[in-house]
Hints:
- The chain is an alpha/beta fold.
- It has 2 domains: 19-212 and 410-429, Rossmann fold, CATH 3.40.50.2000; 218-407, 3-Layer(aba) Sandwich (Rossmann fold), CATH 3.40.50.
- It has helices spanning 27-40, 59-63, 86-93, 96-112, 123-132, 171-178, 190-198, 218-226, 247-265, 283-292, 319-325, 335-342, 359-369, 382-390, 393-407, 412-423, and strands at 19-24, 48-53, 67-68, 116-121, 136-140, 149-150, 153-154, 182-186, 203-204, 234-240, 270-276, 296-298, 304-307, 310-315, 328-331, 347-349, 373-375.
- The strands form 3 sheets. Strands 12-13-14-11-10-15-16-17 form an 8-stranded mixed β-sheet, with helices on both faces.
- The longest helix is centred in the middle third of the chain and has 19 residues, at 247-265.
- It is globular, with a radius of gyration of 22 Å.
- The two termini are 16 Å apart.
Amino acid sequence: MPPKICYGWEGNSKWSTMNLLCVSNGHGEDTIAVRVLKELRQLPGAPSLAALPIVGEGVSFQRAGIAIAGPTRSMPSGGFIYMDKRQVVRDLQGGLLGLTISQFKALRQWAQAGGKILAVGDVVPLALAWASGAEYVFIGTAKSEYLVRDETGRLPNCPWLEGYAGSIYQPWECWLMGHARCQGVFVRDQITADYLQKQQVPAQYAGNPMMDGLESSAAKLATLTAAFPSAEAVVTLVLLPGSRAPEAFENWQRILLALDSVGANFPDRHLRLLAAIAPALNLAVLKEALVEGGWQPEPGTYPTYSRQNLRLILTSDAFAECLHLADAAIATAGTATEQVVGLGKPAFTLPGPGPQFTYAFAEAQSRLLGASIILVPQPQQMGAALATCLQDQARLQRIALNGRQRMGQPGAARQIALCLNQIYAAPALGEWVKPGAGGS
Length: 440
């Protein structure tokens, strides 16, 4: 369970007049940040909140009623220039340099006005928070020690440069997290907190916010279940093509190819396919691909298609319900894949040309999530991989335990918000407690 105590100001306290700006760099990071900020603003005397998403336009913040405090723009790469260097040129042509300069100016103005910063994501928002001159807190979502080691030691297949300095975080990242203006560091699992503390970084694990917000609705569960004929021999798969166009549409084509082999490997089973589609994606494109692939449209509450022993529905408003109903996932996604793993389900990943879900990304994800990820290099191999795994009950039990251990329990957003409440309480009412000086 997440710890209930974090470093903060001692004594009873109230919020001082303070503005908090959240800087994040990606769709998944925005979602995590919003969960924390929603919890934070429910606390007594909550600060004034704003956001500066440096990737995309911050739709998640806008939907949550959180003001955008600077310029935003969607770039061709979708924020994945570090995975495909060819995207750098496209982003520069799209105005990346000018946008970055304008965003940094907004950060500096925020800091000069006495505002604080919450950085969510990787080293980019962390470095921007430091460079602004403001006090800051960091929620590290991108890195975990599980990328290079597990509880038994270093992984044999990880790149030798990763983790060479004693942590998956590089020395300059540790310096930024250990800086005097960094008021708190929250990481995604206990093993990462343990290794960072050895590097003199006051990191802590308060749970993983990725596992928050996955409560299911009984009404939606019933609607989804009713979309399929009653049958005894049923396998339910959730399809996760990702959230960014046009890559998600290319991923969808590969998933449909994989479903051909799935149907062939389960000839005596009914396959229930739940396609959990990001609201920003155009369903018409996905429907067209289904029709071109020989799927037959059928009436239903959700867009419904069938082919042989496969029946598929598309939904953009029942993500959590799809995850809870599924026996496994076929995934070409980042955060969504981690969430299905956290619910104890196996995820069969299908790498493609990217820019996000490349083979390198999928391989790193398999190290991060361990036994819960089954990397399938080619769509034609999907059916056999699924059949082998789903028939092995002992393996499924190990996968369930592994996923919950790697991803943690829900409730982290609330715990982090409470810690932020302590960190940014009125200075006159308490004294900052550093690790080893009475804090816990």
